[in-house]
Automatic annotation (TrEMBL):
Lineage of producing organism: Bacteria, Pseudomonadati, Bacteroidota, Sphingobacteriia, Sphingobacteriales
Protein name: histidine kinase
Reactions the enzyme catalyzes: ATP + protein L-histidine = ADP + protein N-phospho-L-histidine
Single GO MF annotation: phosphorelay sensor kinase activity
Keywords per UniProt: Kinase, Membrane, Phosphoprotein, Transferase, Transmembrane, Transmembrane helix
Residue ranges occupied by any Histidine kinase domain in the UniProt entry: 228-439
Matching PROSITE patterns: HIS_KIN
Amino acid sequence: MKKFRRLIFFRAFMLFLGLILLAYLLFKGNYFYALLLLPLCILLLWFTIRSQIRTYQELQEFAEAAKYRDFTRQFALDRASIEIHPLRVAFNNINDVFKKISSEREVQYQYLQKILELVDTAIISYEEESGKIMWINESFKALFAIPYFSTIHALEKKNKGLYHQIIESVPGDNGLFTFDTEQGSMKLQLHISNFQTAEGKYRLIALQNINAALDETESKAWQKLLSVLTHEIMNSIAPISSLADTIKNRLEGLPYVEELDDIRLGTETIKRRSEGLLKFAGTYRTLNKITQLDLTSIKAADLFENLYLLLEPTLIKKEIELDIILKDPSIELSVDINLIEQVLINLLLNAIEAVKNVDNPYIRLQALLINGRAQIKVSDNGKGMPQHIMDNIFTPFFTTRKTGSGVGLTLSKQIMLLHKGNILANSEEGKGSTFTLQF
């Protein structure tokens, strides 16, 4: 920098001195010497102008690089003239600082993006004025089965209900709403916030599927309730059953008296109903017995083959067509085979019951991969279920059959929750039902 200052000062001094001397020679009429000095003054002026032009060009190139954020460029120092060498050193230092800042920001952005991609929460951000989508994570695409859309308004054609839910909600909303999918209904927690930058106003939407959390909480609540109920029922009924059995045996040892017939009949009724209640309570006690899994890898094809061999006689006898669809034979599940077979047998038996009074009864068993996760679907063309029944099919004690215990679907859901999965139901009256096991 000192050399550059000395050079500038020297050129300015020499140009000033030359111009003074040239003016003096012209004033004295020494035109010959003035003519000899003129090229030197022009040369000094040219060096000064060229230095300024070079400086301007260097500034222009740096400004252009900054405009396009090209901080990878390095200004060569080995061939730089003394007047632009300090400028290039400064530019290179600035580039290095911006490069470091840009690198740190890129790392932070990649880190944040990876985090947002890994979370199960569906996140989308868009510009409020134009509706242009600024960012969308894979969880959003997977949750709503929408691969791509450029503006938030394009969502209306793909999912009208979701679009209006997002547009009509205001910042600060943290409400729940139910969203219907092909697999069934899911409950979503909605979070909305607005933010503003120099480029414009933006809206950030977060949608969290809380079905799993609600199901787990509900399952634990039912388990506690069932544990208390079965314990109290068995403790209360067991003595009654034992006492009724004792009275019955003593009555049988007495001589026949017609007046005792009513007592015998009443005692027999009490004993029979007590045993029925004990059996009923014992059935529901099984809901609390399953706490650990014996996980084993099994191909979906082998699982389906076992089920078909087991149910084939029943299907043939009732003339029900079972269609097994397995487009990818390599689909493999890590499950407790006995428990999952129990779930599928229960669903297939329910489907057999559902199609018993329809023409051309049909059941479909299907395995597929959705976003890398295995699903098994059991569908039928039975009578279907109305909404008020759908809302209660996984509730313990609830059944629509005269001979049903109301434990099958509740137990199936608990088994799927133990597998860190879920079971979803979708049904339409007159068209049939579909149960989806999500792993």
